[in-house]
Amino acid sequence: MGKDKYENETLLKWGWPEDLWFHVDDLSSAHVYLRLKPGETMDTLNETAVEECCQLVKANSIEGSKLDRVKIVYTMFTNLQKRGDMDVGQVGFKSERDRRYRTIEKNREIVKAMMRTKEEKLSLI
Fold first, then answer.
1. How far apart are CA 52 and CA 44, in angstroms?
2. At 122, is the pLDDT very low, low, confident or very high (cuts 50, 70, 90)?
């Protein structure tokens, strides 16, 4: 997960084809990546994993965390598009049809459970 636009930009350099990318739609937020297991797709992924990633993205959006409901967009990493004229941390999409959306409300219990298992590791990327 990228904490700010600079970390989000760095993560864009290291994504894998099997990574699923999550973001709060139309607001600034963390980029959250979930690496899928062989054979998994974004349409067959466990519902709990999708909900947890959506909650994590919402909780790590300055604006989105204050709203009751937000729309989350998610897609495969290979569908992300980065052009030279885009701001740091900003991405577009190669295909609109390969995006999925989910509108969520804050679930404090999911966020609390994830924060209890949070680990931060220094990476010298």
1. 15
2. low
Residue with tokens 């980065």: 82
Q: Are 29 and 64 in contact (CB under 8 A)?
A: yes
Is residue 125 within 8 Å of residue 14, measured between CB atoms?
yes
pLDDT in tens, 14-37: 999 999 999 999 999 999 999 999
First-to-final CA distance of the chain: 14
**How confident is the model over 71-107, as pLDDT tens digits?**
999 999 999 999 999 999 899 999 999 999 999 998 8
pTM over 0.85? The answer is yes
Residues in the chain: 125
Nearest Cα to Cα of residue 22 among 2, 46, 38, 4: 2
**Residue with the two structure tokens 């009751």:** 68
Phi, psi (rounded to 5 degrees) for 13: -80, -15
Beta strands in 1-125 (DSSP E): 19-24, 32-35, 69-76, 80-81, 92-93, 99-105
How far apart are the C-alpha atoms of 80 and 62, rounded to whole Å? 23
